[in-house]
């Protein structure tokens, strides 16, 4: 099986998110990491390879030149090669799931893929749409929020999904799209020799503008701002005080 | 929909960067063992007049005075003040006082001195040597309510704070300026900066940022007779007379109460990352230490080690997993930081990665395996392998806890000798601040039911192990202090002359012997 894994480069979640000066977008200054759900997807793909269910794992990322580093991280975990779709569009806001799905469709078809593993959502836009749109575009089955993936004897996949009502098991044929949830696995650490080996693995670069895909955003962000500062409470000394304060503030 | 949000915020919560050991993680699971019995107490007994006096002099007595004079001492509020973090020691104090200012501390001590009432100053109560709780009915003087951060001077990088501020709060506060406290330790979620000063806490950053002696610019201490020594002028340089503040740092509450401090703080590095190495013999550990110091120089901000027994204890009793497995003899955590604020985050990541690769080239024949963290959750996971070992030992059973400074090359033979003494009765592990020559030795017998065995083994170990340290010209307490647990032994480790001068100073500052009696000095 040939497995395509999407890996998105996002702002490290331990950094406090700030709006930019113009309040039009998030300030992206700071350390970047692989989206944690993408990391889980990579881990699952590598485990499939180790179980001899997958023959090749291809890590795909979209973004400016720094996206290649996220691909390298996937290669260090064990992916075989990478595909970097180069663009200077902002991938946290302007490049939206519809566009991302179109790009993945292109890569899918160019690489005769059997399975696409994506994170269920990214921690910057929290969209949770790309996998679903991609499956529909490709007209293939989808299993989202996967917390377990098993292999049936007939070549189908049995995916346990985490849904609001509990856990649901679905059986889907390949090719298909699966989005990965938190409890699917524990991503491995990159061993130092593997990080070094990863430098020699191939990353193919494709320029997005050359791909003849409409990636214009469909939703426009008007404003990005901090949540309102929570004001501290006021301590009162006794019930009479409380009553008079409530009256002052016209609450009663 | 809601479920998905919960899952991703769960991810963020569980994977958040370095968090703390809150007091809910103390050894409350371990049944109580009382290891030190109070000897003859030569101070006065607390009475109702005393309690009334305190209620009169303290602001908000309903929160400042916690008393149980009548009761059997089983008041649940007082229980916390009376019990140490290890759950090994439980005092019998009937009164905890929680002043809100230096002036109130002064009033309390003045009165106690005149009445010859014994006082135990207490911060976060996370000490490991039975120094922060009463041994009998001493009054607990808690700094809990003195938790104001006074301010931070960016020109000189000097933080001014009251002593009762939790270390983690200081870390958060200074982060907004891009700075951090010079000291950091696993107990950061509960320990107070005042307690850190009183014990001269070491921690994982000492290698790079030096001790609290080096970084404390000024402090305010209240003497046992109530005199307030205010040295908070916080000047970077001030050579006018004896530097008295150093007397209080590391005095373990026996010379007075520290109520405020001015501390020099370093800038938070522009970026840092951490690697974990696995090795099979101790010579190689020493080689990696040398190579790290040589090659990384100022970029090396922490280097720690732990042995296979510690690693197994971690696996058996905690949820933390070692990414390098369980088949090697030694593991080392190496932290590299970059201080160049002009580089972008991307450049910094690359710079640090290159430094690790450079180090790796030098040690590749010497290490068996290694991983580098790829993000903050992996950094935390690697640090947890080292920082959560101590909890593992407590879950195993009753634990002998030692903290020694020794020549590094003696670590393995030292551990072997202790293992020989204890045989199959205990699991013995060594870990710690190898860069500082400081080893923590933990040896646990199984469970908490066999106090008899524990005491027999204790007789085998003590004072033998302390004399062994003395033979190696080390320290019987590198950073944990003496408290009450090591008070019978510390004179083995310092010359008579030094001990004599210490006792003289104690006699001058605390003639009535009311400050933390039977701690430090037996």
UniProtKB/TrEMBL annotation, chain A:
<dbReference type="GO" id="GO:0009063">
    <property type="term" value="P:amino acid catabolic process"/>
</dbReference>
<dbReference type="GO" id="GO:0005759">
    <property type="term" value="C:mitochondrial matrix"/>
</dbReference>
<dbReference type="GO" id="GO:0033539">
    <property type="term" value="P:fatty acid beta-oxidation using acyl-CoA dehydrogenase"/>
</dbReference>
<keyword id="KW-0496">Mitochondrion</keyword>
<comment type="subunit">
    <text>Heterodimer of an alpha and a beta subunit.</text>
</comment>
<dbReference type="InterPro" id="IPR014729">
    <property type="entry name" value="Rossmann-like_a/b/a_fold"/>
</dbReference>
<dbReference type="InterPro" id="IPR012255">
    <property type="entry name" value="ETF_b"/>
</dbReference>
<comment type="similarity">
    <text>Belongs to the ETF beta-subunit/FixA family.</text>
</comment>
<feature type="domain" description="Electron transfer flavoprotein alpha/beta-subunit N-terminal">
    <location>
        <begin position="23"/>
        <end position="215"/>
    </location>
</feature>
<dbReference type="InterPro" id="IPR014730">
    <property type="entry name" value="ETF_a/b_N"/>
</dbReference>
<comment type="function">
    <text>The electron transfer flavoprotein serves as a specific electron acceptor for several dehydrogenases, including five acyl-CoA dehydrogenases, glutaryl-CoA and sarcosine dehydrogenase. It transfers the electrons to the main mitochondrial respiratory chain via ETF-ubiquinone oxidoreductase (ETF dehydrogenase).</text>
</comment>
<protein>
    <recommendedName>
        <fullName>Electron transfer flavoprotein subunit beta</fullName>
    </recommendedName>
</protein>
<keyword id="KW-0813">Transport</keyword>
<dbReference type="InterPro" id="IPR033948">
    <property type="entry name" value="ETF_beta_N"/>
</dbReference>
<dbReference type="GO" id="GO:0009055">
    <property type="term" value="F:electron transfer activity"/>
</dbReference>
<keyword id="KW-0249">Electron transport</keyword>
<dbReference type="Pfam" id="PF01012">
    <property type="entry name" value="ETF"/>
</dbReference>
From TrEMBL, chain B:
<dbReference type="GO" id="GO:0005739">
    <property type="term" value="C:mitochondrion"/>
</dbReference>
<dbReference type="InterPro" id="IPR016171">
    <property type="entry name" value="Vanillyl_alc_oxidase_C-sub2"/>
</dbReference>
<dbReference type="InterPro" id="IPR016166">
    <property type="entry name" value="FAD-bd_PCMH"/>
</dbReference>
<dbReference type="GO" id="GO:0071949">
    <property type="term" value="F:FAD binding"/>
</dbReference>
<protein>
    <recommendedName>
        <fullName>FAD-binding PCMH-type domain-containing protein</fullName>
    </recommendedName>
</protein>
<dbReference type="InterPro" id="IPR006094">
    <property type="entry name" value="Oxid_FAD_bind_N"/>
</dbReference>
<keyword id="KW-0285">Flavoprotein</keyword>
<feature type="domain" description="FAD-binding PCMH-type">
    <location>
        <begin position="89"/>
        <end position="268"/>
    </location>
</feature>
<keyword id="KW-0274">FAD</keyword>
<keyword id="KW-0560">Oxidoreductase</keyword>
<dbReference type="InterPro" id="IPR016164">
    <property type="entry name" value="FAD-linked_Oxase-like_C"/>
</dbReference>
<dbReference type="Pfam" id="PF01565">
    <property type="entry name" value="FAD_binding_4"/>
</dbReference>
<dbReference type="Pfam" id="PF02913">
    <property type="entry name" value="FAD-oxidase_C"/>
</dbReference>
<dbReference type="InterPro" id="IPR051264">
    <property type="entry name" value="FAD-oxidored/transferase_4"/>
</dbReference>
<dbReference type="InterPro" id="IPR016167">
    <property type="entry name" value="FAD-bd_PCMH_sub1"/>
</dbReference>
<dbReference type="InterPro" id="IPR036318">
    <property type="entry name" value="FAD-bd_PCMH-like_sf"/>
</dbReference>
<comment type="similarity">
    <text>Belongs to the FAD-binding oxidoreductase/transferase type 4 family.</text>
</comment>
<dbReference type="InterPro" id="IPR016169">
    <property type="entry name" value="FAD-bd_PCMH_sub2"/>
</dbReference>
<dbReference type="GO" id="GO:0016491">
    <property type="term" value="F:oxidoreductase activity"/>
</dbReference>
<dbReference type="InterPro" id="IPR004113">
    <property type="entry name" value="FAD-bd_oxidored_4_C"/>
</dbReference>
């Amino acid at each position: 099986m040939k497995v395509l894994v999407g890996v998105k480069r996002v702002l490290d979640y331990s950094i406090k998110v700030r709006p930019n000066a113009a309040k039009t977008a998030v300030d992206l200054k700071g350390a970047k990491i692989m989206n944690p759900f993408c990391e889980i997807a990579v881990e699952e793909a590598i485990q499939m390879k180790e179980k001899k269910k997958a023959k090749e794992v291809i890590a795909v990322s979209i973004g400016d030149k720094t996206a290649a580093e996220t691909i390298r991280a996937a290669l260090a975990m064990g992916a075989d090669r990478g595909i970097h779709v180069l663009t200077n569009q902002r991938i946290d806001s302007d490049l939206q799931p519809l566009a991302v799905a179109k790009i993945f469709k292109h890569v899918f078809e160019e690489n005769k893929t059997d399975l696409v593993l994506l994170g269920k959502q990214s921690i910057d836009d929290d969209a949770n749409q790309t996998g679903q749109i991609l499956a529909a575009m490709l007209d293939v089955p989808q299993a989202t929020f996967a917390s377990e993936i098993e292999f049936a004897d007939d070549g189908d996949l049995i995916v346990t999904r985490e849904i609001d009502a509990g856990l649901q098991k679905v059986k889907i044929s390949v090719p298909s799209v699966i989005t990965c949830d938190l409890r699917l696995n524990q991503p491995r650490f990159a061993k130092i020799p593997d990080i070094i080996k990863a430098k020699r693995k191939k990353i193919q670069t494709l320029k997005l503008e050359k791909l003849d895909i409409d990636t214009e955003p469909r939703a426009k962000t008007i404003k990005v701002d901090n949540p309102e500062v929570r004001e501290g409470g006021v301590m009162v000394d006794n019930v009479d005080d409380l009553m008079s304060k409530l009256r002052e503030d016209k609450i009663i | 929909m809601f479920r998905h949000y919960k899952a991703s915020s769960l991810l963020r919560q569980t994977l958040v960067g370095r968090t703390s050991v809150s007091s809910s993680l103390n050894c409350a699971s371990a049944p109580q063992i009382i290891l030190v019995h109070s000897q003859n107490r030569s101070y006065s007994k607390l009475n109702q007049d005393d309690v009334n006096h305190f209620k009169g002099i303290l602001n908000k007595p309903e929160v400042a005075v916690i008393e149980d004079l009548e009761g059997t001492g089983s008041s649940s509020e007082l229980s916390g003040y009376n019990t140490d973090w290890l759950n090994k020691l439980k005092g019998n104090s009937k009164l905890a006082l929680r002043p809100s200012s230096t002036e109130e501390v002064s009033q309390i001590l003045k009165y106690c001195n005149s009445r010859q009432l014994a006082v135990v100053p207490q911060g976060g109560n996370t000490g490991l040597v039975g120094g922060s709780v009463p041994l009998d009915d001493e009054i607990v003087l808690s700094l809990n309510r003195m938790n104001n951060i006074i301010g931070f001077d960016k020109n000189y990088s000097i933080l001014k704070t009251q002593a009762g501020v939790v270390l983690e709060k200081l870390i958060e506060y200074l982060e907004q300026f891009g700075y951090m406290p010079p000291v950091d330790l696993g107990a950061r979620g509960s320990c107070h900066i005042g307690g850190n000063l009183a014990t001269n806490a070491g921690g994982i950053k000492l290698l790079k940022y030096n001790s609290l002696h080096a970084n404390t610019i000024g402090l305010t201490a209240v003497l046992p007779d109530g005199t307030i020594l205010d040295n908070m002028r916080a000047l970077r340089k001030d050579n006018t007379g004896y530097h008295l503040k150093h007397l209080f740092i590391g005095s373990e509450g026996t010379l007075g109460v520290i109520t405020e401090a001015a501390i020099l703080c370093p800038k938070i590095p522009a970026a840092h990352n951490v690697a974990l190495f696995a090795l099979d013999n101790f010579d190689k550990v020493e080689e990696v230490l040398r190579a790290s110091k040589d090659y990384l120089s100022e970029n090396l901000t922490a280097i720690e080690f732990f042995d296979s027994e510690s690693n197994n204890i971690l696996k058996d009793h905690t949820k933390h997993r070692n990414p390098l497995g369980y088949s090697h003899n030694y593991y080392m955590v190496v932290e590299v930081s970059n201080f160049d604020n002009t580089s972008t985050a991307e450049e910094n990541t690359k710079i640090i990665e290159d430094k690790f690769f450079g180090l790796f080239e030098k040690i590749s024949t010497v290490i068996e395996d290694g991983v580098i963290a790829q993000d903050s959750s992996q950094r935390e996971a690697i640090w947890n392998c080292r920082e959560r070992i101590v909890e593992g030992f407590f879950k195993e059973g009753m634990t002998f806890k030692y903290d020694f400074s020794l020549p590094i090359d003696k670590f393995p033979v030292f551990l072997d000798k202790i293992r020989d003494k204890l045989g199959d009765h205990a699991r013995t592990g060594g870990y710690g601040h190898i860069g500082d020559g400081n080893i923590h030795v933990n040896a646990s017998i199984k469970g908490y039911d066999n106090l008899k065995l524990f005491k027999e083994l204790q007789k085998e170990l003590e004072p033998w192990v302390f004399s062994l340290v003395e033979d190696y010209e080390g320290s019987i307490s590198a950073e944990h202090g003496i408290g009450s647990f090591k008070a019978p032994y510390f004179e083995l480790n310092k010359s008579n002359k030094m001990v004599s001068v210490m006792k003289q100073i104690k006699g001058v500052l605390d003639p009535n012997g009311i400050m933390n009696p039977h701690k430090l000095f037996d």
